[in-house]
Amino acid sequence: MKKKQTLTYIKNIILPCILLSGVTGAFTGLLIFCFKYVSGQVIELSDKIYSYAQDKPVIILPIVAGCIVLSVISAAILRFSPDSRGGGIPTAIAILRGLITFSWVKSIFCVFFSSLVSYMAGVPLGNEGPSVQMGTGVGSAAVNIFAGKHKAWERYSMTAGACAGFASATGAPVSGVFFALEEAHRRFSPMIVMTASVSVACGSLLSSALCRLAGISVLSFDIDIPYAMGFSYFWVAVVAGLLCGFYAALYTKIFKVIRSLINDKMSKLPHFLKVTSIFVLVALIGNISHDCIGSGHSLAQAIFENNVSWYLALVYLAVRTLLVVASNNAGITGGLFVPTLIFGALIGTLTAKALIYSGLLPEQYYLIAVVICMISFLGASVKTPITAIVFSMEALSAIRNVPFVIIGVITAYIVVETMGIISSNDLSIEQKVHDLNSGRRKIAVDTVITAKSGCFAIGKEPRDILWPPYCIIVSMKKNESDDGKSYTGAISENDQLAVHFQTYDTAKTAKELCYILGDQNIYESAVIRSEGENQNIPE
Q1: What is the average per-residue pLDDT within 362-375?
Q2: Domains of the chain by range and CATH?
Q3: Which pTM was predicted?
């Protein structure tokens, strides 16, 4: 019996995790390398155009005209593929949690080209969000092409692709794994760890090798901190954390206000006009100051070298915050991860300059203070403290200053938790789910489902299974013929699971549960406590 259990475990869990995740990771790594290379060329061209126009006011009209043309292209792509709108990470998370659906073909191609249009116009968004969303699309493609009869693996494969996309875009593989655990699914599961780890390893190795051959930087930022800050300056991390926590709370308030303005006050305005207004605004601001727009990598480098004055840092922080939030809420394709780090860097340079000027902090600790603020703001605004801390060690050379980074992140996190602030990603997800299910109501269902022979759930524990959203396994009654030697807590053939779930779409939820537990009528003995509008219970 033990040998049979081991073979079942290898067949049902180990091999699919390795094979599907490996394929997904490899293709994602290749795709993200191509995306990084092409987007780098586009961003460089955009930088040259805006730099050339900096002291030539006569150039402003052609640039504005060009941005209008780009906005029309962007709006057309987003109209064709609404799934490509907004930040890639919130969209990917909503897909991974089963909250929204998407077309992987449209997602990959439209996100790729729509992002390039945004970068060409100088919209201050990053490339990591699109990379995560495209990786999610690759994961869906892998299951549909190679394992079409096993649709229950799709969310695992998409998780693998999302993690590989994050790791390949940022050069932070361990952070990519923690992204799945802390942000995407918010739980620890051996299957999630396996799928994420295998995919990240394959994707990162391939992407890194190709980047080095092409002369592209693997990491997001070029930074080196070869020394540690004295322990007597631990209070600097507390101050940094407090400032970042309060600004993260303010950032969330600004996000809500602008979202309300764009989605409510301007609801009757055609989408392409919203996109065009953002593109034109970016063009006008870019002709005044190029550091207020664009990806922000050159600004970050200037901050690392302490080449940004305090008053300009204030201006950049205010303008970039408004542009990033407006762009995201207008549905323009692009990532929020790098912009979030730039906000933290700007807060960091202001904090460090103030402390150095007042004689409280030696100048040699300037860069450490900046990095602490970058990670503290990231951990607070997205509410992923562990991922943020790990990312600081992998991508920002903070390994020698981890205790100070932890103090800063925890302080900032406590501030936003105390103030009841939700993460910026959750705000975007709420809006996407609201838009998708507008006019519909949830219904609550209690039913008993039997694990059919050969179904996906066999040999897996309930905690390892990505159930449909709002689905809870209340109890599990073991099959009477079970000899008691099956895996502890694992689902066996003919086990009966008492399931409670809420859904906007009964047919979709039924299909997902059948993918997991085998074909059956899950509503045959169901108790429906409330019923929404336009719901048809499938037979």
Answers
A1: 95
A2: 2-214 (1.10.3080.10), 231-270+280-432 (1.10.3080.10), 440-530 (3.30.70.1450)
A3: 0.91
